[in-house]
Design a protein that fits this description.
heterodimer, A: alpha+beta, 6-stranded antiparallel β-sheet, 4-stranded antiparallel β-sheet, 22 helices, 10 strands, 11% strand, B: mainly alpha, 0% strand, disordered N terminus
Chain lengths: 655, 150
């Protein structure tokens, strides 16, 4: 019964979205207040109906209603409750429902908090947002309906992919979608502005909170995913340059660029058409990402292997929104006249450089991801593009970005004197060089990667802190003033430091990782790096829905036991799938990562040990980036700009 | 009975990436073999290298790499061996040859282009005439002021 109600609510939401697309758009064009006003309650209704549908599906998973095909295929009665719930979005249909729920949620927030927007702009934003909703409601209802019943329900389900039965991954998709889909808001603002034919400082200010929120969620989602890959996949890789990962990384890069260019629009009324284009492209890459993941186009390399019908549908959605928006852009971009005048050396130019590097690095990722397809179609070469290419082609951009960051963010608007902007940073630069040099001298081997990472981290973190402290001026009052600086300044410092710290973690891990693979005999200690490993025993036990082989390993350093590690390998009989559960001794300086392998014919067990320096800083840095975004989001001027509701009711003057 | 069957399943689990019994005795050769493992793609897996994959195919590939390395093959000869049998697809990153130079050059070319456009834009901004007043209706002006206050 609840299932049917959910299905019905979904169809109703579809209809509401259609109304919300058409009526306010006409209203805004004809300046009819009543028609424009339809958008707001429609957005709320659309969100509530979609939320109900999603809740109904989740309920079916919670009570294990195997009369639903989706539940049968992706759940099992013996599964822990948290994974029954996360199973709701652990599959194609459910995750699309989550997708469209978030589209509706963002639309609703624009209706709730967008009281200060000009009525025509708000009506158009909500209409465009609803149009995206319409496309995806149709996609769900016509190609991937989650509410399909089975005529004969089975006794039990087929279980969720055990790799997905993990807390890190349970919450990875919702965050990622909040990010992906949040960019739809920036897209809606861009298209609405193009229809309006004007972009001004206020527009730049309105679009930023939503972009910032989307970027924060995307950061968290990507970080969760990479952390999961690190501890779950059994060899401690954190990033694989897999097409699906790239699909989430490209929107992140563009969203980061968009955040920075929207500042220029807000403060200096320049870079308008570029910002609009970025907003369109950022959401475009989200759609491309969805397309890549859903169609199976790239994972299998054999085009459209997974589900051609769904792939074609998403391709059509993508073609419609990107094509439409870009055509609109071509006609209207000339109306976006830049007004600010600034010199070649200025904050504006530095932000242009930031956008250049982020956009081109995104392009590199895009070309690398798509190249296998291009090569097969045009050159008849079947090939693959993997991590070695991306590491070489992508990293230089990040290196330059890191080098320029402290200088650029210290520059004043309009006109800067490079010597003056750089002056306070020269000590920082020398100190950072010293840190890098020290790392170079202390390491074994002659790799440059690690020292570069430490240098960049020191340069960025100290550079942004110096810049931040300078903002408070001089004199005895400065520390008090520092605390009262706008949250946006705090956010900037924290997020930029986070980037530097993540770079350090990545470089440290890639440069200084140690690996050891061997047959371990019970009670016979051996050394890996500075550590002593002893395999004490191996046990088998039965979990709720898996069988486990667990190794008991003692980790010691300088004769002192520092940890007891229990690496496992598990078999999930229902899904017929093995997983590794690596045991990790976490530490800020290094992780010791232990994996148990097979029993050997001649006695003993295969044990793999990795020492991974600085690894945790990758995720600490990501967390700081997200925190910086949140701090910036809480800045007063956004609340002032977005929260004042009392003016919402004022009628629009007739033309 | 079911328990016994499950135990069988547990014991029949696939090999886990590189196994000690596959390794070469000479550490220097093993080191080279491992870096080769990372540069070869497991062709039956989804975006995994031979080094990290548990598939039987990858296990065979690792063994072959070690046989070739032990026979004194250079890295390029090992790659040639695999490319001859499985095509270019088996390489983790394509060789910069033929049409692939486009892939490797795409980033730098784009950077040059974008940089050129960027500098032209910035030059234009530098010499732009003072902004002429755009027609803002009085209500809009008042509204903008209100919004931009604070």
């Amino acid at each position: 019964m609840i299932t049917e109600l959910g299905h019905f609510a979904l169809i109703l939401a579809f209809i509401v979205a259609i109304v919300q697309t058409v009526v306010p758009l006409i209203g805004a064009h004809k300046r009819w207040p009543a028609w424009m006003a339809v958008a707001e309650p429609a957005a709320t209704a659309q969100f509530l109906l979609t939320a109900f549908a999603f809740g109904a599906l989740m309920w079916a998973f919670i009570v294990s209603d195997f009369s639903l095909q989706l539940v049968t295929l992706n759940s099992h009665s013996a599964k822990p409750m948290i994974y029954k719930i996360s199973g709701t979005w652990g599959n194609h249909e459910g995750s699309m429902l989550l997708w469209v729920l978030i589209v509706a949620l963002f639309g609703a927030t624009a209706a709730w908090f967008g009281g200060n927007l000009p009525p025509t702009l708000r009506a158009r934003v909500l209409a465009v947002q609803a149009a995206i909703g319409v496309a995806f409601f149709a996609f769900i209802l016509f190609t991937s309906n989650p509410f399909v019943r089975l005529v004969v329900p089975p006794f039990d389900g087929q279980d969720l992919n055990p790799l997905l039965q993990d807390p890190g991954l349970a919450f990875h998709p919702p965050f990622l979608y909040l990010g992906y889909v949040g960019l739809s808001m920036a897209f809606s603002f861009a298209v609405a502005a193009l229809i309006e034919g004007r972009v001004d400082a206020a527009w730049g200010r309105w679009v930023r909170p939503w972009t910032l929120a989307a970027w924060v969620f995307l950061t968290i989602g990507i970080a969760l995913g990479s952390w999961w890959a690190y501890y779950e996949l059994g060899w401690g890789g954190f990033w694989f340059w897999d097409p699906v990962e790239n699909a989430s990384f490209m929107p992140w890069l563009l969203a980061a660029a968009l955040l920075h260019s929207a500042i220029v629009v807000e403060k200096r009324e320049s870079l308008k058409s570029w910002t609009i284009l970025l907003a369109i492209l950022a959401f475009g890459f989200s759609l491309i990402g969805t397309f890549i993941v859903r169609s199976g186009l790239l994972t299998s390399v054999h085009a459209f292997a997974n589900d051609p019908e769904r792939g074609v549908f998403i391709l059509m959605i993508m073609g419609f929104f990107m094509g439409g928006a870009l055509i609109l852009f071509a006609f209207r971009a000339s109306a976006m006249e830049a007004r600010g005048v600034f010199s070649l050396v200025s904050r504006e130019s530095a932000l242009v450089a930031n956008n250049l590097l982020l956009a081109v690095s995104c392009f590199v990722v895009f070309v690398g991801t798509m190249w296998p397809l291009v090569a097969e179609m045009f050159f008849d070469r079947k090939l693959s593009v993997g991590p070695p290419f991306f590491n070489m082609a992508f990293s230089p951009f990040m290196l330059v970005l890191g080098l320029l960051l402290p200088i650029g963010s210290a520059m004043p608007w309009k006109r800067a004197r490079i010597a003056r902007a750089v002056k306070p940073l020269r000590y920082v630069f020398v100190l950072a060089l010293a840190v890098g040099g020290l790392a170079y001298a202390m390491q074994t081997g002659r790799s440059l990667l690690g020292p570069i990472g430490l240098f960049l981290a020191a340069w960025i973190v100290m550079g942004t802190i110096v810049d931040f402290v300078q903002r408070a001026g001089r004199g005895p009052e400065r520390w008090g003033r520092l605390l009262r600086l706008p949250r946006a300044d705090w956010g900037k410092m924290v997020a930029h430091s986070g980037l530097g710290i993540t770079m350090m973690g990545v470089c440290g891990l890639m440069a200084w990782q140690q690996e050891d693979i061997r047959v371990a005999q019970f009670g016979e200690p051996y050394d890996v790096g500075a550590y002593t490993i002893t395999l004490d025993e191996v046990n088998r036990y039965e979990g709720p829905n898996f069988l486990s082989t667990t190794g008991y390993i003692t980790l010691a350093q300088d004769g002192e036991v520092i940890a007891q590690l229990k690496p496992e390998k598990r078999i999930y009989p229902v899904a017929q799938m093995p997983t590794t559960e690596a045991a990790i001794d976490y530490d800020l300086a290094r992780d010791v990562y232990v994996v148990i392998g097979d029993e050997q014919v001649g006695g003993g067990w295969a044990v793999r040990t990795y020492i991974k320096p600085l690894t945790n800083w990758i995720w600490i840095g990501s967390g700081l980036m997200a925190l910086g975004g949140l701090l910036s989001l809480s800045d007063r001027r956004f609340r002032v700009a977005a929260g004042a509701r009392k003016t919402a009711a004022s009628p629009v003057p007739a033309e | 009975m079911i328990r016994a069957a499950l135990l069988m399943l547990l014991l029949a689990a696939p090999a886990w990436a590189l196994d000690p019994k596959e390794m070469l005795a000479d550490p220097a050769l093993e080191e080279r073999a491992r870096s080769l493992d990372h540069a070869l793609r497991c062709v039956v897996c989804q975006s995994e290298s031979v080094a990290s994959s548990n598939a039987n195919w990858a296990e065979d590939a690792r063994r072959t790499v070690r046989e070739l390395v032990a026979d004194g093959a250079t890295d390029d000869e090992v790659f040639d061996f695999f490319v001859a049998r499985y095509g270019e697809f088996v390489l983790m990153s394509p060789r910069p040859s033929g049409s692939n130079w486009l892939l490797w050059a795409a980033g730098p070319i784009m950077l040059l282009l974008a940089g050129l456009i960027g500098v032209m834009y910035l030059r234009g901004r530098e010499t732009a005439a003072a902004p002429h007043e755009e027609a803002l209706s009085p209500q809009e002006a008042a509204r903008l002021k209100e919004i931009l206050k604070e």
